[in-house]
């Protein structure tokens, strides 16, 4: 097999965003586009010869083709072994798990996560390190720099590798091992949670749940774990077959896009527990009967109840949340007397804290929760954690959340997204807020005193690095906040996110709808930013 060195020209738009490089499939299909980025990864990663990588994706359109490209390039770049999920499938948390369990040197995950798939949808590539976590900013910057100066990439003229049966193949000097994408992950879950108690919960026949895999990658994982290992009825997993275009849907588990599940969770005869996950299986949405648990509350509740799960029975070292995530978990950390860290948006910022043993649990408002068991957020893990809590407490989801609010206070929370706004308009909104920040402290907005206002910068306590411009925040003396941020995962125009939160310690005032409770702050957020005029939008695209 010959190694080919192919001349190429740089593309100017290959900057990894919040979570890897995401673009339209048609962009990735340009000759050399994927190859350039993958070569930049190999160049920046500078792996020793003969190292081991894990490769897999969420099964979306272009996944199989991209994997063959990655394998050929790995062979030409001196990689010794690649572990690839059967059929090219690995959920993001399973990829992280396999990297760690098999002591691989890193991994390449092919996914655009919650973005739609199919020929007209999105594709993405992400590089993870040997800890199983997304490459930190220093590495993603080095990759981006390399994409701007690249002049050739290396590949081999070998055939496609058969990915549909477990076993080993040789591609030049590279050994490609096709592995079961579910096994390592399912075993890790059995170690963390009390599967006997969960089996007993389903065996009684009284408890019913629905899991919406949204025709994305978690279908096979959920079927194996929930239906086969835990004995839940075999109609527990809906939309369980991964499809290249996710059945035309938007594989984002929220109240808007997981609409069918939300409908089925309504009414007296609805199941007790509902959950969904996203394209690559790292997000989760938690529902009770007629009840939605905000991701920020879910993180706080997992933290407060962590000792109920076997894997966390010794308690937590600390917790972390992304800056826009509500402060609900902060109240729990305070009560438990453990550290609580506030990081920029994106899972890559949790890696150092997890590796250093400073935190055990972490999460984001964007339906992401995880722990030190892997280095990615983990959808099914969160669902099993909730099941474990439900099994031990014997209460409903709603009871558990309401009791939590009574004990710790309720953080009313909402995020308003304005998707595909012209980039200039989105920048103008951010600039409008930015120019007012200095003058805001001490003033009164929506009847609340502004305590501080800034452009969030993160100082990593482990490696001392600083990440600036991570979102504009207005913090009120009573704990309320308004945060503005531009998305780093969109592929068309700009997505503006406005995060709004207030704290309600009074149990008699905790029963309002979040949109009602936050009405004044939402109004203030629009007024301050002049968002409606600058974007010519009069409503958000998605409210979560
Ligand atoms: C969004 C979320 C962020 C999450 C990221 C990747 O980023 O806000 O919390 O980590 O998606 O999630 P942004 O920059 O668009 O706000 V996933 O499941 O798409 O890998
Ligand atoms: Co995802």
Report on the structure:
The chain has 544 residues and is α/β, with parallel strands linked by helices. The protein is 32% helix and 26% strand. The chain has 18 helices and 27 strands. The strands form 6 sheets. The chain has a 7-stranded mixed sheet, with helices on both faces. The longest helix has 15 residues, at 379-393. The protein binds alpha-D-glucose-1-phosphate-6-vanadate and cobalt (II) ion (CO).
Alpha-beta content class: alpha/beta
Q: Low-confidence runs (pLDDT<50, min 5 residues)?
A: none
Bound molecules: alpha-D-glucose-1-phosphate-6-vanadate, cobalt (II) ion
Span between N and C termini?
52 Å
* Residue share in helix: 25-40%
**What integer is the average pLDDT?**
96
Shape: globular
Strand arrangement within the widest β-sheet reads: 2-6-5-3-4-9-8
Radius of gyration: 23 Å
- Strand content of the residues, in percent? 25-35%
- The number of distinct helices, counting runs of at least 4 residues, comes to 18
Number of extended strands: 27
Please describe the biggest sheet, giving its number of strands, its sense, and whether it closes into a barrel. Answer: 7 strands, mixed
């Amino acid at each position: 097999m010959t190694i080919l060195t192919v001349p190429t020209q740089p593309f100017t738009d290959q900057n990894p965003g919040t979570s890897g490089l995401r673009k339209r499939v048609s962009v990735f299909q340009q000759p050399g586009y994927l190859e350039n980025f993958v070569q930049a990864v190999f160049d920046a990663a500078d792996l020793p010869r003969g190292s081991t990588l894990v490769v897999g994706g969420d099964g979306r359109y272009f996944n199989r083709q991209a994997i063959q490209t990655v394998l050929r390039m790995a062979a030409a770049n001196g990689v010794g072994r690649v572990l690839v999920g059967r059929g090219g499938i690995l959920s993001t948390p399973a990829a992280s798990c396999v990297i760690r369990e098999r002591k691989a040197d890193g991994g390449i995950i092919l996914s655009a996560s919650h973005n739609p798939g199919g020929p007209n949808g999105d594709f993405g590539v992400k590089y993870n390190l040997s800890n199983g976590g997304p490459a930190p900013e220093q590495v993603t910057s080095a990759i981006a720099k390399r994409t701007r100066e690249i002049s050739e990439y290396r590949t081999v003229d070998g055939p496609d590798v058969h990915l549909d049966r477990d076993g080993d193949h040789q591609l030049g000097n590279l050994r490609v091992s096709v592995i079961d994408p579910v096994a390592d992950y399912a075993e890790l879950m059995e170690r963390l949670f009390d599967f006997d108690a969960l089996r007993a919960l389903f065996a009684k026949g009284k408890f019913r749940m629905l899991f919406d895999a949204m025709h994305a990658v978690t279908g096979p994982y959920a079927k194996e774990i929930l239906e086969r290992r835990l004995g839940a009825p075999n109609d527990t997993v809906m939309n369980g077959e991964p499809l290249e275009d996710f059945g035309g849907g938007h594989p984002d588990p929220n109240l808007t896009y997981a609409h069918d599940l939300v409908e089925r969770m309504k009414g007296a005869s609805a199941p007790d527990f509902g959950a969904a996950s996203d394209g690559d299986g790292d997000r989760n949405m938690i529902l009770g009967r007629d009840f939605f648990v905000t991701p920020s509350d879910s993180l706080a509740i997992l933290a407060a109840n962590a000792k109920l799960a076997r894997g966390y029975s010794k308690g937590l070292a600390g917790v972390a949340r992304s800056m826009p995530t509500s402060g609900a978990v902060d109240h729990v950390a305070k009560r438990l007397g453990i550290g609580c860290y506030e990081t920029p948006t994106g899972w890559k910022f949790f890696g150092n804290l997890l590796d250093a043993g400073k935190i055990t649990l972490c999460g984001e408002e964007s339906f992401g929760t995880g722990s030190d068991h892997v280095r990615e957020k983990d959808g099914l893990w969160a669902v099993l954690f909730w099941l474990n809590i439900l099994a031990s407490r014997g209460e409903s989801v709603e009871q558990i959340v309401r009791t939590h609010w009574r004990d710790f206070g309720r953080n009313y929370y909402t995020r308003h997204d304005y998707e595909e706004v012209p980039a200039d308009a989105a920048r103008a909104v951010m600039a409008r807020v930015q120019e007012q920040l200095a003058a805001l402290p001490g003033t009164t907005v929506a009847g609340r005193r502004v305590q501080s206002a800034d452009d969030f910068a993160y100082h990593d306590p482990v490696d001392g690095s600083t990440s600036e411009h991570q979102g504009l925040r207005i913090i009120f003396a009573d704990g309320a906040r308004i945060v503005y941020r531009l998305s780093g995962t969109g592929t068309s125009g700009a997505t503006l996110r406005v995060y709004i939160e207030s704290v309600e310690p009074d149990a008699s005032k905790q029963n309002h709808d979040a949109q009602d409770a936050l009405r004044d702050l939402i109004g203030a957020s629009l007024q301050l930013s002049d968002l409606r005029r600058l974007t010519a939008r009069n409503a958000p695209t998605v409210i979560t």
